[in-house]
Amino acid sequence: MDSLTQIVLGASVGEVVCGKKIGNKAILWGAIAGTIPDLDVALRPFQDMVQYLSYHRSFSHSITFAVLFAPLFGWLLHKLFPNSRAGFKDWTWLFFWGFITHILLDTCTTWGTQLLFPINNYGYALYNIFVVDPFYTVPFLGFVIAAAFYNRHSSKRTKLNYIGLCISTAYLLLSFINQQSASNAFEKVLKEQNISYQSYINKATPLNIFLWSITVKTEEGYYFGYHSIFDPPVKINFTYMPGNHQLLANYRGNDKLERLIEITKGYYTVEKKDDEFIINDLRFGQFNGWQGNAESSFVFEYHMKAENRDNLSFFQKEYRFVPDKDYLSAYFNRIMGKTNE
To answer: What does the alpha-carbon distance between residue 63 and residue 104 come to, in Å, rounded to a whole number?
Structure first.
């Protein structure tokens, strides 16, 4: 999730663990604990593209990290505040739960979180919430801020914090329910249209848990579709795109290319333009995919230049997408089940 959301979650968890003992210091240090795993981005200038993609959300987002570093931070804070009502155990639990809740929430998003690193480097992802969702964050933030204005012994402080936690957790649970509902709708239409598939990813679209996007993997390519839980029972229009994986045949076996394909979980298409190969990571979809625009750019687009199989270079094409008022209005209407059909 985004940094603000992780700060809010960490602050609330810190309050649960140590709020009665140290008041707003628990909120502050909980927020810091909720931020620490994301500091892996500081390594980006020292890594090439594939290395960064491989190690983002790896060790710092693993259970191993939480187990090893929570006691270390607990010891440091115990030394820093020797007269605090919170002891070594309290500080350790604050950081442990700050790390673990951060990791688990990130697992709900699309990128993938390497929970079991270094045992394996698989990015676990549940796809049930977008990385930025104001419906999750804003109410949660409001209750945490409100709780901070009360004395640490106040029952209202505790109640407000738990209300915020309950609302955010309920929203996550609703996202799983909506995701399953959308999956049922997608599977029904895929069966009706006799589309044979190997697997699919069904993920929340930006800023909500009501409009869902599916990427369906077949032997030769991929189908894309959208479904809002507010949609009437109508036919889902799928668009198809060939995988063109054969374009990379001469370069398969290269460690970096194999790792990049592994990161996409096998959901990628390939294009050849001039002297470059373009590898589109389909897990994140297209900017305007919900409008049925098959020519829209993909959110994550990796470029590869190749002299031979042993000499490949990669870079990421980054787009700045700034939606205007009309786009946002149309997007909101689509979320609510309104289409132009």
So the answer is: 10
Return the ∠ at Cα 320 (arms to 314 and 323), rounded to 5°: 145
- Would you call 117 helix, strand, or coil by DSSP? coil
Query: What is the torsional sign of CA 252, 254, 257, 263?
Result: positive
3-class DSSP assignment, residue 199: strand
CA-CA distance, 237 to 159, in Å (whole number)?
Answer: 46
Q: Distance between CA atoms of 249 and 190, rounded to whole angstroms?
A: 30
Nearest partner of 72 among 50, 92, 90, 47, judged by Cα: 92
**Cα-atom radius of gyration of the chain, to the nearest Å?**
22
Go through 80-112 and write b for each residue having 16 or more CB atoms within 10 A of its CB, e for each that does not: eeeeeebeeebbbbbbbbbbbbbbbbbbbbbbb
DSSP letter at 56?
T
CB proximity list for 64: less than 8 A, separation 6 or greater: 117, 118
Integer Cα distance of 18 and 28 in angstroms? 11
Q: What is the DSSP letter of 339?
A: -
- φ/ψ region of 292 (left if φ > 0, alpha if ψ in -120 to 50, else beta) reads left
- For the stretch 33-65, pLDDT in tens is 999 999 999 988 899 999 999 999 999 999 999
3-state secondary structure 221-289: EEEEEEEECCCCCCCCCCEEEECCHHHHHHHCCCHHHHHHHHHCCCCEEEEEECCEEEEEEEEEEECCH
Does the predicted model carry a pTM greater than 0.90? yes
Do residues 278 and 264 make contact, with C-beta atoms less than 8 angstroms apart? no
pLDDT in tens, 318-329: 777 788 899 899
Single out the residue of 180, 249, 190, 252 nearest to residue 215, CA to CA. Answer: 190
pLDDT for res 229: 95
Where are the chain's structural domains? 3-174, 193-317
The answer to whether residues 106 and 61 touch, using CB atoms and an 8 Å cutoff, is yes
SS3 214: strand
